[in-house]
Amino acid sequence: MSIETTELELSGDHMTAMHDLYRYLHANPELSMQENRTAEFILKELTALGLEAFVCGGTGVVGVLRNGDGPVVGFRADTDGLPMQEDTGLDYASTATGRLADGTEVPVMHGCGHDTHITAALTVARLLSEAPESWSGTVVFLFQPGEETAAGAKAMVDDGLWDRTPKPEVIYGQHVWPGLAGTVNISRGTAMAMADSWRITVKGRQSHGSQPEQSIDPIVLGAHMVVRIQTIVSREVHPMKSAVVTIGTFHAGLKENIIPATAEFTLNVRTFDPEVRERVLGSLRRILKAEADASGAPEPEIEEISSFPRCYNDPETADALISEFQRVLGEDAVNEVPPVMGSEDFGLLAEAIGVPSVYWMFGAFTQETLDSADPLPGNHSPYFAPDIEPTLTTGVRAAMTSLLSRLAR
Ligand code: ZN
Ligand code: ZN
Predict the structure, then answer these.
(1) How far does residue 368's CA lie from ligand 1's centre (Å)?
(2) Pairing between β-strand 170-180 and β-strand 357-365 as defined by DSSP bridges
(3) What confidence tens digit (pLDDT) does each residue in 248-282 have?
(4) CA 342 to ligand 2 center in whole angstroms
(5) Interval 89-114 mean pLDDT
(6) Were 180 and a residue from 154, 278, 293, 363 both cysteine, which residue would form a disulfide, CB within 3.0 to 4.6 Å?
(7) pLDDT for 133-161, tens place per residue?
(8) Can you say whether residue 141 is alpha, beta or left, with left for phi > 0 and alpha for psi between -120 and 50 degrees?
(9) Could you tell me if 195 and 308 are in contact, meaning their C-beta atoms sit under 8 angstroms apart?
(10) How many domains does the chain have?
């Protein structure tokens, strides 16, 4: 199928509208699963463009653009900001605040660049709705909340997403990253790692520090758990496969002469291969239980904090898209890259209906910015400030290319 992206070029008006949209969104970020004003804004924009739009998964928004017979194609943009202070110094920098689940007030920033994703998707919705002669079929736009907490895709699916909208034959998605603007990075097969985070409560018995015989010391027990866990990757995972197990927090006790009743630590597991994931998680459960047994302590409590699914680019679908990207963006603008250890809940949307999905990165910085900054502030840095162009135009062209690769007339 051939596509005519030239018919869908951005005019001066479109550019101005897109840049205004981006600056507005950048200045008004919201925390994960609290994207209420963002959802309202997106809903209004989509409705004004003539899409059937509805809220799904609390603060997610779905926009369905129908244009005659043809395939149904999904496109996902995530919408949440992060609890962090923006230090970019931009005149459209965020001064927004939000509240964490425990009530703490925190500054909020679009520190992962999800504002570029919303902007690109809304702009594509506008271009497609204004040029019905160029394509036919149905586009399902998925404005997904809560990517940073891995809660959003699941919330949309659990809210009956796929019973409420036409089921796409494929779902595309993209993310801005600190590479050269105008280029895209794409993987065949696994694109990003699975990530599992747990909170472990180690249960002991409290006593005076001078009477260890009365205690079950959860600090000594927890320390054994932490050390033994280090052997999972080194002794249980195949040397040619990868896994990361990080224990990011460990808290226990209030005073030097009290052996506390409990200790608490959190851990994060990253894997690429579902079998390796099962092995590592199984080993964790075994070690946690056995170390507790060894100390004569009760079984520790394991609470799942988050679970990011695999982000897997169906190889055949990715190949087809890579050729289209090369044709539209230029051969030099498309980099085929190995998977990264970062994580995404994007994969869940397609997994839920058993269709392929493809996810890619688009660059955020001009060559000049890349040359001048060392180190370059990337996603989640308080200084992360994508160059508006050609970043946004590339996000729009990449998204449009993916959709038209299925829908062009
Ligand atoms: Zn992100
Ligand atoms: Zn992020």
Answers:
(1) 24
(2) parallel
(3) 999 999 999 999 999 999 999 999 999 999 999 99
(4) 9
(5) 97
(6) 363
(7) 999 999 999 999 999 999 999 999 999 99
(8) beta
(9) yes
(10) 2
User: Which CATH number characterizes residue 371's domain?
Assistant: 3.40.630.10
The CA 379 to ligand 2 mean position distance, Å, reads 6
Q: Both 378 and 239 in a single domain? A: no
Token code pair at residue 283: 């080993």
Q: CATH number, domain at 199? A: 3.30.70.360
Tell how far the Cα of 148 is from the centroid of ligand 2, in angstroms: 6
- Domain residue limits at 90: 3-187+337-407
Give which of 395, 334, 333 is closest to 114, Cα–Cα: 395
Instruction: Give the distance (Å) from ligand 2 centre to CA of residue 286.
Output: 31
Give the model confidence (pLDDT) of 197-233 as tens digits. 999 999 999 999 999 999 999 999 999 999 999 999 9
**Number of alpha carbons in the 13 Å side-chain half-sphere of residue 152:** 29
Ligand 1 centroid to Cα of residue 113, in Å, is: 6
Based on the domain organization, do 368 and 401 belong to the same domain?
A: yes
In a domain? residue 326: no
Query: For residue 133, is it within any domain?
Result: yes
Average pLDDT, the chain: 96
Cα 151 to middle of ligand 2, angstroms:
13
Q: What is the CA(114)–ligand 2 centre distance, in A?
A: 8
Amino acid at 113: G
Q: How many whole angstroms from 262 Cα to the centroid of ligand 2?
A: 32
> Ligand 1 centroid to 3 CA: how many Å?
29
